Each structure stands twice: as structure tokens, then as C-alpha cells.
Amino acid sequence: MTIVKTQVNRRSFLKASALAGGGLMIGFSWACNPMEAERAAPKEWFDMNAFLSIADNGQVTIMSPNPEIGQNVKTSMPMIIAEELDIAWEDVIVKQAPLNSTTFQRQVAGGSQSIRQGWASLRMVGATTRQLMINTAAKEWGVDAAGLTTENGFVMNGRKKLSYGELASKAVGETIPEEVPLKDPKTFKIIGKSKTNVDMDDIVTGKPLFGVDYTADGMVYAAVMRPPAFGTKLKSFDDSEARKVNGVLDVITFDDNERPDQREIRGEKIAVIATNTWAAFKGKKALQAEWERSSRLESTTNHDRELNRLLNVSNSESLKRSDGDIKKAFAQADGTLERTYEAPFLPHNTLEPMNFFANVTEDKVLLAGPTQTPDWTQGRVAGLLKRERSTITCEMTRMGGGFGRRLYGDFALEAAAISDKIRKPVKVQFSREDDMMAGTYRPASKYKFRAAYKDGKITGYHLTGAGIQMGNATRENWFPAGGIENYKVESNNLNSNITTGAWRAPITNFLAIAEQSFFDELSKEMNVDAVQVRLDILERAKSNPVGSIDYEPEKMIGVIKLAAEKGNWSNPEAGVSKGFSCYYSHNTYVAEVADVTTENGQPKITKMTAAVDCGIVINPEAAINQIQGGVVDGIGHAMYGDFAFVDGAPQAANFDKFRLIRTKEAPKVDVHFVESLNDPTGLGEPSLPPAGGALANAIAGATGRRVYKIPFTKQDIAMG
Amino acid sequence: MPSYNIKVNGKSLSVEAEANTPLLWILRDELKMKGTKFGCGIGQCGACTVHLNGNAARSCSLPISSISNADIVTIEGLSEDGSHPVQVAWMEENVPQCGYCQAGQMMSASAFLSKVENPSEEDVHQWMSGNICRCGTYPRIKKAIFRAAKKGVTE
User: Fold this and answer.
1) Cβ-based contacts of A201 with chain B (< 8 Å)
2) Which of A278, A398, A625 lies closest to B140 in CB terms?
3) C-alpha B70: how far from its chain's center?
4) Is 0.80 surpassed by the pTM of this model?
5) What is the mean pLDDT of residues A244-263?
6) Residue extents of the structural domains in chain B
7) Sequence ranges of the domains in chain A
8) In 3D, which of A500, A506, A492 has the Cα closest to residue A447?
9) pLDDT of res. A4
């Protein structure tokens, strides 16, 4: 048991504040199946703090603070509170909290950080409220609080007990404890036991949950026409046909640029306002618009040339890290290897296309919808409309995927700008074409790796990255840093007017594929086992690191050994080619073994084995789901992800041209967690980076062909 | 605007709409049944899958004028209380991540299982190939289908 100081005066979430009621179309979710809950209905609720409200019948409402994009935080964050509060999970009702930056911390879905960064405060919320129950009961009984314990929503004093429901009304106004004990993780009863997604019933029965489902009285629909190519802006348009479409109410132009220089380049957009989505879409199709060039018109062929050039630029700005003497290592080597890898832009393609609701009135703004960054979005809308933040409310709906795309508030800015102009509640709805063509893309990048080896060990390593608006396209202090004597990492950046941004596991989503492919090929050149090559580097990084490193070699070794064992690395089944890969990202360590067989001359991935060290696993079944999903996603985009620009225009706009992985191509994914009592780390992203590399390496074993380019299909690799 | 009589989840309804309005938008915007999802609008992703006379159909590409007296079943009508074997299997296998595609997945799976009693893996691949899950829950979808198949699925 650990005692922690609550520092109550600095933590507003420990104080009672009115729980968000009304207004929210998206209602509450029972943690358990409501049909199984047979108990008296609650008569009165008592707010304990910003997160917790306890009813007289012992039911507990927990506010889930962070946006839910499918990473399952709406279940796992409340589980942490419930654990420390020491209640039965069946008594929990979960509500999605609205944005409230003064009360809640970091209401963001990004970087796989919700659980890691929420862990300590969520535990404290539960533990503080538990202590409050104990202190209240001690007063009731006239005994010392130190002798009391809790169990499943009761304070116990020998054979006497009081339920939290009985204590709740008396606890209101009690002094909030300044020191509270946290449970020993070994005694956890809820954490570590699989709990069903709290929205499960609503998902399987098709209840309204998502942004696209959000409605409000008097709401109209808007379809937006945006420039068809980056580098162009609106010149003129004719809306006469659009206005004839049944259901179209109005056609307007609007300005959602936050800065004058943006306006110069991007101009205004056109919105078709209609009584329903279809009419808005149809009206937009009937628009005749002319566009003019406003800045560079970029093409993938130019990017290609520029990135190739940048792979050979070496100067003080490009240098990220240098250990030892690279030149000497290459001069004295038994052998060297150089390989270049390349990846294209990628759209996010959340299955729920972007959409957002705004209702701008004289004195207030209501925003509602799917956003990974409600706080940032609120601030940007405040800036755009020149309103005080305090007059803007932001409600979060469940999201039909995020993957980084919903970090960007462009859709909310559009909705706010349109609603401000027409002064009606409005839902902006992107079509799939809008979604794919007005993206915030994973930028294209290239990596050149060079290695020198001597006496079966890697003695020199030189990585140069070149990416479009990626800043530093490398992770110079991660593996294999610290494990190679002579080591140099450089990176060069190419600017672009194409909007780019975070895409599930930014930078590492391709860096890992390239790096782990390179190590595999290098191990073959060196004639050393691919796993052993990695372990040799890690042993050095662990025992006597070269320079400083930002990862823990010990943990990487742990997952490598676990994956090798569970994935039968040393003992491949007949006809199976094994591919190995490992990567550290989002504070989590993952190693993967891909099984590839050959059918009719084509490789087929039959299984992926993943070993994961993410500290304490909160909700095992959901955690496995995240790892499996990341692997499938990683394989899919490595195999098929292809996206190009010609004169600023995206060359794919829907799923007929952009291929996503489908059922047949997705392997079975076996997941193994390292048992750990360490604080939890990220889960939504870390299994993706290593997946493509494991696949590439297994394909090389099965076919003798190495892939250096995403998508693999571009190198005539087809999946059987 | 022309008027159409349609039958949704056993109920006969009359809707006014342009002839080319896809069933998807009739369901979502006119009938306020939000369970059927919009994904691509061109019948490529399967998020909008409903049953049309017991067959899986992409409602985003079905003009209202083409439906006439067909029996339409949506996710809301698959069962009254989430007790259809496919829904139960989806819960038991903890299939969803974001959950957005799952109504379409379940509608495809339930139509298929009502016709094929003991599906092979290949059958599942073929039948489910029109449904995209961006979260990558395919391995669980497959397990849920085999689980539901064991219990038997009728229309």
C-alpha cells in the first residue's frame, strides 16, 4: 500500500462540481448489462467530486473524461477509479464528460497517453472518495477511521457495515482527505479482469452514439465544397442548379481561415445548406465552381526527387546524433550494407467520415461531435469567431475511429463558421470523397540505412531520414542507440502546402518498418540469427550504453524473448517462413513474429504472434483487441496503402481507388503480455509500427524477395 | 415529391422523397434510425448494410424508388433487445473497437448465416469481403461468426 498526498487545493477534480446533465444526446452507459441489474431505482444522487456521484441505493456514476475513439478508455478509465473506490463494477454507470479544462486534465485522445497520463489522478479520485466514505462512516460510528476497511461499496467495521449509498448524503461537505492510501496492485479486483465495453449494448443494437448520429432541434445539414487541389482557391461559382435541388435551403460562401495568410492561399469555401444530408450532397454535386492557382501545385514525382536529394544532405542542421567514428567503422568493416526505404502519403480513412455540429448564437456557442482534441478545438473556434472560450461548450460523441485525423479541428471550424453565418444549428457532413481529399495526411518519407559489421557484430550504423513536414523523421535515442559503438543519425525536412499530421504512431509507423526490415537483411548478410543481432545490440545498450538512450533495453529484451518463444522463432513449422520485428513506441515494447506460407506462388500471412510490455494491463480483452487491431492495420497499410498527388490533387477519393485491408487478408493475431506491476503505458498505437516489418521479413524468407517500398503491392507482392 | 410505401422492421411506412434518394438517407434522416451507418456512399465499405428480403444490401446505393414492397430489416430490427445470435456473439467475443462498422458487419453476417449453416473460413472471407473495419477487428468478427453459426441463425 502506498500513501499519496492528494494536494487537494491544487486538484479541482477532487471537489464536487455539478455533473453534466441534460444537453447530452449521448446518454449514460451501464457498466453491466442493465437487464441483469435488479435493484431499487436511485432516488437521489450526491456529487462527491467532478468524477463521481453516488446514489442512495449505492450506484455510482463515473464520468469518463477523455474522448473515446475506439481505444476503449470510456471503459478502462472508469475501471481505474472503481478499483480504488472499491466498488462492484456492476454498480457503475459511465457517462462521457463534456470538455471542462478547469476540472479535468488532458482531455485528449492522442499519443496512446490517456491511461498512462490519467493513471495517477484516476487512482487518486477513487482512493480519495473511498477515504471520504471511511471518514464519514467513522463519524457515524464514533470510531477511529484507521480501524475501518472497505469491501465492494461498503465500509466495514468488524461485522457492522454501512453502504456507500447510505453514507453518500452525509459525505457531502465533509473535508476532502489530504492523504490517501492506494491499493497494492497485487490486490486489484477490477483492473486486470476483462470488462465489456460500456457502450457494447448500444453498439450492437444500433443506438445513436456517434457524431454522425447527433441531432438537435432545427438542425440543418451542410455539405462543403473545398478546393480540389492543394495550392488552388475559389475563383467563382454558379449555384443556380444547386439551389433547384429539393431540400436545399441556401448556398453560401464562408471563411474558416484563422489567419490572413491562410486566406490568401486557401480562399473561401462553399457550403450547401439543406434539410437533410442527401440534399446537401446532391446540391454540392450540382455546383459549378472555378478554381485558381494560389501557391505551388505539388506532385508525388517532385516529392520523390526532393526526398532522394535530402537523403544525401549532411550538415549541422541534419545531424541528430553522432557517437564514435562512423567513417572508421566502415573503413575497417568485414562487410557493409546500404538500403533505402520509401513510403507514400496516407489518408486516415476513419470509417465515420469527418463531421461536426455547431450552434452559434448571439452569446453562446455549442459544439458537439467527434474530436480527439476538444480543448484545442474550442480554443481555435474561440479565435475564429472572436468569442470568449467560456461561452463555448464542447460535447464529445463517440468516434467512428480517430487514428490522428480527429486531432485536427478543421471540421469544427467549418461548422462554427457556417453556423455563425447562417445562425442556425448545423451539422457539417463530409462525404468519403471529402474525407479522403481534404485530409491531414501521413506524410511521405524515405530512409537510408548504412551499416558496417566486423566479426559478427554491427560496428557502424548510419541512418538518414527525409520526410515531408515531419521535422525530425527519426528517433535517434531509441533502439539501436546505445548498442552500437559508431552511430550517426541525420534527418532532413521538406516543406509542403499539403496538410499533413499525425497518423496512428506518427513517424514510427514507417520508420519501424524500414529499420526492422534493414536489420533482418543485415542479419542475413552477417550470417547471424535475426533475433540474436538485436539481442547483441540490446545487451550492449543495457550493460554499457554508448551515450544516453531513451528506452529500456531490458524491456525490449523481455518482449523479444517472449515473442521468439511464443512464435516458435527457432522452430518454424513446416512450410512456414518467420519474420521478426520489434519496436518501442508510446512507452510500450512490442515484438512480433509473422508466419507466412506460400500458396500458388503467393505469400500468405497466416498468423502474427505479438509480445507486449505495457506495464499493468487494465482491461485484458480490450487490450488484446487493441494489439490485434494495430497489427491488422499495420499489415493492411504496408501491403496496400498508396496515395499520390498530381498538381496538388489527391489521386484517390474513395474505397474503389484506395484499398484497405479486408477480412480475407487479416491473419490470426496471438497476443502475449509480459506480466508486470509497472504503471500502464500506451496500447492504441505500439503494435502497429513493428507489424509491417515482421511481414516484410517473412515475405523475404518465403519468396526471396525484399520489399523496400510501401505499398508492398507496388513491388508486385500480392497476398495469397 | 413522390411518396413511397416501404416496410422497415415489419412496419409499413410512407415516406416522401426524391426518387433517387438512397435508402440509407431515408433511414437516417427521415426515419431517424441512426443504426445504419454512412461510410463511403458507393457500396464499397458495407457500413450501410441492411437486409432486403433477407439478403444483405448496401443501402447507400439503393434508390428508394427501386425498393417497392421489399422487406427491409435494419440493425434496429435484427432483434428487439440485442438477443439475435449474431449480436450475442459480437458481445461475447468483445468484437468492437470504435464500433462504427459493426452494425453493417452484423447485418452482413446475419444474412449470410441464415443461408449457410456451417460456414467454412473461405465462406466467411467471401461473404464478409464487402465490409471494411478500419480498426482491424476482423479476427474477432470471424470468431464471432463461427460462434453464432454454432447456435444457428435463422432469418
Assistant:
1) 82, 91
2) A625
3) 15
4) yes
5) 95
6) 3-77, 78-151
7) 2-205, 211-295+354-429, 311-345+441-715
8) A492
9) 84
The reply to whether residue B34 touches residue A403, judged by beta carbons under 8 angstroms, is no
Interchain CB distance below 8 Å, B35 and A72: no
What is the CATH code for B3-77?
Answer: 3.10.20.30
Q: Is the ipTM of this complex over 0.95?
A: yes
Point out the residue among A196, A281, A628 whose CB comes nearest to the CB of B136.
Answer: A628
Q: What is the CATH number of domain B78-151?
A: 1.10.150.120
- Out of A628, A633, A662, name the one closest to residue B139 (CB): A628
Q: What is the pLDDT of residue A13?
A: 77
Look at residue A21 and tell me whether its pLDDT is greater than 70.
no
In chain A, what residues touch B87 (CB-CB under 8 Å)?
204-205
More confident residue, A526 or A110: A526
Q: CA B99 to CA A69: how far, in whole Å?
A: 9
| C-alpha distance from B42 to closest chain A C-alpha (Å) | 8
Residues of B with CB below 8 A from A631's CB? 136
Q: Could you read off the pLDDT of A82-109 as tens digits, one per residue? A: 999 999 999 999 999 888 888 888 898 8
pLDDT at A332 over 60: yes
Q: Can you tell me the distance from the alpha carbon of A277 to that of A281, in angstroms, rounded to the nearest whole number?
A: 6
Averaged pLDDT of chain A: 94
Cα A409 to Cα A402: distance, rounded to the nearest angstrom: 12
Q: How far is B11 from chain A (nearest CA, A)?
A: 18
Of A208, A403, A431, the CB nearest to B41: A431
Q: List, in order, residues 6 or more apart from B31 with CB less than 8 Å away.
A: B8, B13, B15
Do A98 and A395 touch, CB atoms closer than 8 A? yes
User: Residues B63-95: pLDDT tens digits?
Assistant: 999 998 899 999 999 998 999 999 999 999 999
C-alpha cell at position B35:
443504426
A211-295+354-429 maps to which CATH number?
Answer: 3.30.365.10
Q: Which helix (H) or strand (E) holds A96?
A: strand A92-96
Distance CA A122, CA A107 (A): 13
Say yes or no: do domains A211-295+354-429 and A311-345+441-715 share a fold. yes
Please give the residue of chain B at the shortest CA–CA distance from A276.
B29
CATH code, A2-205 = 3.30.365.10
User: What is chain A's length?
Assistant: 720
- Are A215 and B32 in contact (CB < 8 Å)? yes
Cell numbers given for A104? 479535468
Distance CA A613, CA B131 (A): 32
Residue A189: strand, helix, or coil = coil
> What is the C-alpha to C-alpha distance for residues A544 and A541, in angstroms, rounded to an integer?
6
Q: Is the pLDDT of residue A718 over 80?
A: no
Looking at the complex, report in whole angstroms how far the Cα of residue A278 sits from the nearest Cα belonging to chain B.
6
With 0-12 / 13-18 / 19 or more C-beta atoms within 10 angstroms meaning exposed / middle / buried, residue A200 is buried
For A213, which of B34, B87, B142 is closest by C-beta distance? B34
CB contact under 8 A, A661 and B22: no
CATH 3.30.710.10 fits A311-345+441-715, yes or no: no
Across residues A487-505, what is the average pLDDT? 97
Interface of B with A in 44-73 (CB under 8 A): 44-45, 47
Q: Choose the closest CB to A664 out of B42, B76, B125.
A: B125
Chain B residue closest in CA terms to A214: B34
Task: Find all residues with CB under 8 Å of B93, minimum gap 6, and list them.
Answer: B140, B143, B144, B147
**Distance between CA atoms of A565 and A243, rounded to whole angstroms?**
66
Identify whether the C-beta of residue A638 lies closer than 8 Å to the C-beta of residue A691: yes
- Predicted confidence band of residue A29 (pLDDT cuts 50, 70, 90): low
In angstroms, the Cα distances linking A484 to A177, A490, A537 are 51, 16, 6
The mean pLDDT of A552-581, rounded to a whole number, is 98
Do A669 and B75 lie within an 8 Å CB cutoff?
no
| Residue B26: closest C-alpha in chain A | A278
